[in-house]
Amino acid sequence: MGTVSRRQILLGGTALFGASLMPGSNIIRGAIGEELPRPDYMIRAGFNENPYGPSRVALQAIVDSIKMSNLYGGDRRALSTLMGEIHNVPTDHISIGTGSGEILRTAGMLAAVADGSVVCADPTYHDLIRYAERAGSEIIRVPVDRETKHIDLNAIHRAIRRDTKCVYLANPNNPVPSIIEKNELRDFTLDVAKDRMVFIDEAYFEFVDNPDYASMMDLVRDGHDNIVVARTASKIHGLAGMRIGFGFAHPDLTQRINDAKTGAINLLGLNAAIASYKDQEFQEFTLRKNRESLDIVEGMLDETGATYVKSNANFTFIYTGRDIQELNAAFRAENIMVGRPFPPMTDWMRVSMAKPEEMRYFVQVYEKLLG
Ligand SMILES: Cc1ncc(COP(=O)(O)O)c(C=O)c1O
Questions:
Q1: Phi-psi region of 288 (alpha: psi -120 to 50; beta: other; left: phi over 0)
Q2: What is the distance in A from the centroid of ligand 1 to the CA of 212?
Q3: Atom 3 (ligand 1) nearest CA
């Protein structure tokens, strides 16, 4: 390796290995055959974050806003107007939350306050469900399909009871990065939302590149009154720590959500989001890099014949046959943080996409521990 530093190898991996690195071929192993050294920092592949964010324009907006942080508020209307323009939805259909998590928890609370049960897939993202459960709702968990691990919409339909006040669907789901077929989801949503709230969580919407996928935003736009679509600035915009997210719904439901919310948006997050949503270039860059990382990881998984669910997001979900708690510790010892256990699939490992050069190192460690 001569005078090249360890950090350069990891962070400059594309330059060193890029020319000969064809994702999905055994050249990957050849290319890293040299043994990438352990990085001198922890690679974060456990939280579905954006490894590049915030963008430069968002950072500039944060810096410019710091001197105003003695002031209350900020221009919420500017962010609502921008989101309304981007999604072609009137601003009275938009709630801004401290992360989309606040919108999720509020919806969970509304279901609980109405003495209703909540139906969801299992496993799925926890925020709405956990909050509703703590507030008194019964949670009806419907296992994902045994074979595909995709959300089983028919089974969810069957599980709905008279007292069900909310059906929660993450699309793409998390920790399984699957999607629900668009026509099935549309029919389901229109039918089920006649009598109860259908909450479609689209936190990973921007990452999806799949002809079978569609957002349900147009149902909100068309005026249906029991449908919430949630989006977030945490993922593709890399603003997870700034806590900005959105709910899109009929104005009456938006009003109920806004009345029940308890958070207050902070000025830095608000201005960072305004800057970031105007910055198409950073979103495209993130998508390109995420695809590169997925190609490296899924290429290796295909090559080794591993069982995993093809990603529609910025993470993958791999069957390991091992206890994930133990595997977490083994990866940590190699300076990689992977996802926590996700019951009931505790022998599956969720791996979030870090930078491509970091995922090459992940591949090396995976092959050592699980190959
Ligand atoms: C499916 C899903 N929804 C919502 C969120 C919450 O995002 P935030 O509260 O940061 O907007 C996450 C975070 O990981 C997620 O995976």
A1: alpha
A2: 22
A3: 203
Q: Which residue's alpha carbon is nearest to atom 12 within ligand 1?
A: 203
> 129 with 108: CB under 8 angstroms?
yes
**Residue 11 sits in the same domain as residue 41:** yes
Looking at 261, 277, 293, which one is the last position of a domain? 277
Pocket of ligand 1 from Cβ distances under 6 Å: 48, 99-101, 125, 127, 170, 174, 201, 203, 232, 234, 240, 245
Separation of CA 176 and ligand 1 centre (Å): 14
Do 326 and 219 sit in the same domain of this protein?
Answer: no
Helices and strands (DSSP H and E) totals, the chain: 15, 12
Contact present, 152 and 144 (Cβ < 8 Å): yes
Which position has the higher pLDDT, 8 or 260? Answer: 260
Q: How many domains does the chain have?
A: 2
Q: 137-155: per-residue pLDDT in tens?
A: 999 999 999 999 999 999 9
Structure tokens at 188: 């389901």
Q: Which secondary structure element, helix H or strand E, spans residue 191, and what is its range?
A: helix 182-192
Q: Residue 244 corresponds to which tokens in the numbers above?
A: 């900005």
Q: 101 alpha carbon to ligand 1 midpoint, in Å?
A: 6
Going by C-alpha positions, the residue among 154, 150, 192, 157 that lies closest to residue 171 is 150
CA of 243 to the centre of ligand 1 (A): 10
Q: What per-residue confidence (pLDDT) applies to 33?
A: 57
Question: Predicted confidence band at 72 (pLDDT cuts at 50, 70, 90)?
Answer: confident
Domain at 249, CATH number: 3.40.640.10
| 53 HSE (CA, 13 A, CB side) | 29
CA 306 vs. chain centroid, Å, equals 23
Task: Say yes or no: 222 and 307 in one domain.
Answer: no
Residue 247: give the domain boundaries: 56-277
Residues 114-134 have a mean pLDDT of 98
**Section 68-89 average pLDDT:** 95
In a domain, 1, yes or no: no
Helix residue ranges per DSSP H, 222-306: 251-260, 267-277, 280-304
Contact 300, 356 (CB under 8 A): no
Residue type, 149: K
